Amino acid sequence: MIASLTGTVLQVGPTSAVVEVGGLGVLALCSPNTVAGLRVGHRATLATSLVVREDSLTLYGFATPDEREFFELLLTATGVGPKLAQAALAVLPPDELRSAIATENLLALMRVPGVGRKGAQRMVIELKDKINAVGLSSEPHTPAGTSTAWRDQVTQGLIGLGWPAKDADAACTEVEPMVRDDPSTPVAVLMRAALQTLARR
Question: How far apart are CA 167 and CA 79, in angstroms?
Fold first, then answer.
């Protein structure tokens, strides 16, 4: 399984990106949220999931491992294919999806194109007991706040992804202005910005 891609971004489309890895241009289908964080000519790292079908091999790319894990979790629900799972992540970040499923918030799930009340109920029934296996925050929205708690979370997250502590700390310093400008910035957004900073080095 291809778990991630790291390389120079060659092309960016509305729902896809081509990343050069070892001289090969690898196409990954991405949500608009993920594509928005990519820049042609810059290095980037995408968490990926390979979906195998009888007539195709399709690679899906995500800004964070959390998004990939939730994408794969959604695929285990009856009637949920890659396109619907990707649409769900485009509408609701992983932490909000997790909260919606845990609290049986059908209205939130029905915001996803193609998901009606029955589909939302099925997702809750089939996934509610599985969401704790995905390493996501239990809070629906975790703002950074004015304390340094966000820094510890982002640093530990980057270290967990394999970055040296020194680099993780430097990335946090670079994204710190985002917290000063808006203390309510979600930790997930800061994590994504820190990853992009490291990918450009």
Answer: 42
